[in-house]
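Quick one, probably user error.
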């Protein structure tokens, strides 16, 4: 197997780091919110959401650099790419419309919305990982 291009490898590495930064804080946000809702909202708005945007940037960079030096050529027309982009859009929408507002509030309803948004985000992250590992339609 030929080695992938340096640009592709850099973008893929940064894409994976962005995944960890976007979803890692979600593992503790419920616990943090219970004691410091403002801190939970700050972590989500300053780390997770920007990382979610960078995840897209570096993913598109890796996609654009695919096909070089032995890396399979992928395109926007591939099923796994299109569905992954749709999943990303839904993740951003959940973050902006559900998780962030709930993290800024107090009460049982806010906690339920926060945890529902976090749960949906984790489920969608698993879907995206499966799509990117198995790459259906490429």
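Nope, works fine. Designed sequence:
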């Amino acid at each position: 197997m030929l080695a992938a291009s340096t640009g592709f490898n850099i973008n893929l590495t940064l894409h994976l780091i962005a995944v960890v930064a976007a979803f890692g804080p979600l593992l503790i946000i419920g616990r943090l919110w219970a004691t410091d809702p403002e801190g939970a909202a700050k972590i989500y708005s300053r780390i997770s959401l920007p990382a979610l945007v960078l995840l897209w940037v570096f993913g598109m960079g890796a996609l654009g650099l695919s096909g070089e030096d032995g890396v399979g050529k992928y395109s926007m027309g591939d099923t796994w790419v299109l569905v992954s982009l749709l999943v990303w859009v839904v993740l951003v929408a959940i973050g902006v419309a559900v998780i962030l507002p709930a993290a800024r509030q107090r009460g049982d309803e806010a906690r339920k919305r926060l945890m529902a948004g976090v749960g949906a985000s984790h489920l969608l992250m698993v879907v995206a990982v499966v799509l990117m590992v198995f790459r259906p339609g490429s």
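The chain has one domain: 6-133.
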